[in-house]
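Task card 7
Instruction: Convert sequence to structure tokens.
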Amino acid sequence: MNTILTSLADACRRHPLAEKIFIVPSHRIGHQLSESLVLSGTNYVNLRVATLFDLALDAVSLQLAAENISLLSEESALSAIEDIFESEIHTKDGLYFGKLEPGVGIVSALHRALSDLRLAGVQFGGLRPAQFVSPEKHKGVTTMLEKYEARLSKNGQADESAVYHMAIDAVSQKSAADSIWIVYPRLALSFLPHRFLHALTADKFVVLDIEPLVGLKPPQQFPLWKNEGAASETQFSWIGSPRLCPKALKNGPVDLFHAVGSTNEVKEVLRRVLYGGLPLDSVEIACIDYQKYSSLLYLEQQKRHLGVTFGEGIPSSFSAPGEALLGFIDWIQSDYSVTELRNLVSAEVLSRKNIGETPAVGSQEIIRILRSANIGWGRDRYVSLLTALVKDAEEKARAPGEEDDADRGQEWYADRAKRLTWV
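Output:
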């Protein structure tokens, strides 16, 4: 086990029956560690995994309901900031952001900035011009912050920082729960979350051990990450000073390799895992770009029929429902182009069912029918042109006479009319 997991296992063994609250940056990290704990044979009875914001919401949930305050979602926050930007900042003289268009980029950047300021305990009245590169920027930021706070108050909404403010007051008025508080060492804490942690636990929390970093200081956003302590050095302790790393470490060496391109990197990693006979549930792959490498890893594991799980999931386009949804969106955005619909049908992600006695039509035949209808694009053209094909087939099915040039008689046209109606 790694240092963090070993430290967590020790805490569980020391307090086997007590309630243990494990504070983590995300549920994914907490559940991964919990699963690894079970696989190592450690009893984790009464171990509860929670984020700090989960605990803050628990502390104020009744107060929010009593005061009829709703929690502000990220989408609502972005919408509010965009409205404020357009009405108070855009095209206004003397404001730093006035000449910028209210696009996704500037709105997202302002959302992050305002959130960071509020989580740092800063309100619009606490900002001074000397703290900014120019008076115009100070005026722009304070205007945004003032209007944002006013909107939250007017609409009866609370964002993350408001929840932390309320939670600090709530937990400060009562004694800390008689629980064992265990904190993940790499927990990013700004001012308000840090205050809440100390108020919630009455400073009685245990930070798990972590490997020291030789030659590096822990990032400032991780105030609980201590570089000194009882934890022993591992291979990764020397990641900042690889040339100083001892040649032999008790827990094995670090193998380095290079490959041409990301795809070959993923292939080589899987080759080494399989060639070494390593159990897949004992292997964890960490990468710098999750979106890119998870997609490549998913494609490779599909080819090899491997059982791989993904910490943050896989792109929805890799699933049949996701591909179908994206296909329908492309179809609608293209003004219902028949080419986009044919591509969607050929992808075999749509289910087809029998209608009465008429069996489901195959995808290739659907494509042929759509091509023969000469639809092109336009939502209204589908029904009218396909209906015309149905009527034509029904008329030929009723018309007595000889078979056509392709030796197709009444029975064939009657069956075609049913298939056209199904489509």
